Amino acid sequence: MYTFKRFFTDLQSPMKKHYYCSTCFGDINFDADVCPNENCQHQLNQKKKSYFIEIPVKHQIKTFMEKEGTVEILNQRFKRKKKNILGIEDIYDGKLYSDLSKLGGPLSAKYPNNISLTWNTDGIPIFKSSKVSIWPLYLTINELPIKQRMQTENMILYGLWFGESKPFMGGFTKPLVNTLKDIETNGIDFDYNGQTHNSKCFLICGTADLPAKSIVMNCNQFNGQYSCLRCMHSGETYRTSKGGTVRTFSLQQL
């Protein structure tokens, strides 16, 4: 909570509220009395409407890119030396990043101002005795040195979902998806050393624990039926020696 308070105290980017129906999670206008979804028609509480907060990503990336020394730091990735030529030592060594950074690729030295992003989200209970939780969605810049990627001043907070219900990712991430499509195609103009440059951004991966992963991917949690993302096996419930249960997937039936 201290981190959030500090972030919003120093926040210079404009915030935007997105209101939604707490029953069907559909978009609603602030002054709506009834959910416009014909299959819902839920009566809306004017004093207690549900919403999530968006902090525009474009403004945050532009501000980050214009900080003194940023471009030089981002370009250090082109000079790095690996300890093991065959080892996976950082995200740059993965197949997707390697493909994007090949000669002439969007993350190659030909386009030194382009960057890639990793998303991360998880629920944080506000109080131990309360069902209300906050779900922040962060973006980190992969081209920063490892130690700098998770520093508060370098992370991009896209938005906050809060309430008693877990986030409906289709609605929560809709503005983000639209923004990412735009900056992947058109980029973001920023001023650096008296010149205007352009940076295109590519979201290439995400991280989450297993419960959050199931919410993001709109699938059953790992201990539920049909929770495997690679096949249609329903799995079976198996009782452990300690009295608990686990979900198993028999290799003989696959």
If you had to describe this structure to a student in words, what would you say it looks like?
The chain has 2 domains: 2-218, no CATH class; 221-254, no CATH class. It is built from 8 helices and 11 strands. The protein has helices at residues 2-10, 57-65, 70-74, 95-100, 146-149, 169-172, 174-185, 210-216, and strands spanning 16-20, 50-54, 115-121, 124-125, 133-141, 156-163, 188-192, 195-199, 201-207, 236-239, 245-248. Strands 1, 2, 3, 4, 5, 6 and 9 form a 7-stranded mixed sheet that branches. Strands 7-8 form a two-stranded antiparallel ribbon. Strands 10-11 form a two-stranded antiparallel ribbon. A hairpin with a 2-residue loop joins strand 7 and strand 8 (195-199). The radius of gyration is 22 Å and the shape is globular. The mean pLDDT is 90.
The total count of helices amounts to: 8
Order of helices and strands: HEEHHHEEEHEHHEEEHEE
**How many β-strand stretches?**
11
The Cα radius of gyration reads 22 Å
Helix content: 10-25%
What is the total domain count? 2
Strand content: 15-25%
